[in-house]
Amino acid sequence: MKPRTSPDSPLLFDTVPLVPDFRLELKARKAGHWPVAGADEAGRGPLAGPVVAAAVILDPKRIPEGLNDSKQLSAQRREELFVQILATATVSIASSSSTRIDETDIRKASLDAMRRAICSLAIPASYVLTDGLDVPPGLDCPGQAVVKGDARSVSIAAASIVAKVTRDRMMARAHRVFPDYGFAAHVGYGTAQHRAGIERHGPCSLHRMSFRPLRKTEDGPETDELLSE
Question: Which residues are noted in the entry as a divalent metal cation-binding (predicted)?
Fold first, then answer.
């Protein structure tokens, strides 16, 4: 029996990182849809604070260099690109509060924020590319959900940056009002520091009471999310 050998290029396509480009937007344009917006959200997983969505229509002649999934960028680089995006693109931002999240669920609240961001664009989108598995219901245009979209489409990547920077800034301001939880450091995620603050001071009005460990019963649908984006 011959010994087993490894292939020449093991897991080649799993190890090569995705780099967002403009191909999906150009494909939609070729099909007669223009302009094309990218949409994404930030803040599905935290125990506190809103979920923030952004919609972005990039100018093909002025696409900022270095757009990528916001999670792949440093905080400083996100801030730099945030300024560039706002200066060169059409941008809209919307959010759903912790109260809204508790009244519905995180998925519905996220999609509703994304829908409002898209519908509020100063230039109406003819087509929308959204990150993930869902296109928000209630849009005035068709759309396409793109798995790992923030790593495949520069428009979605731009939206992910805008949403992330906006939410981080909101949580930094929240820290001034509720300094006992460390929101400026963890932006609402379930870190040890955050959980210790909840243990000592109880939840505040920004906490999502439908999320474990904040909810007091196991009744109702599961709304837990990962503790990191």
Answer: 40-41, 131
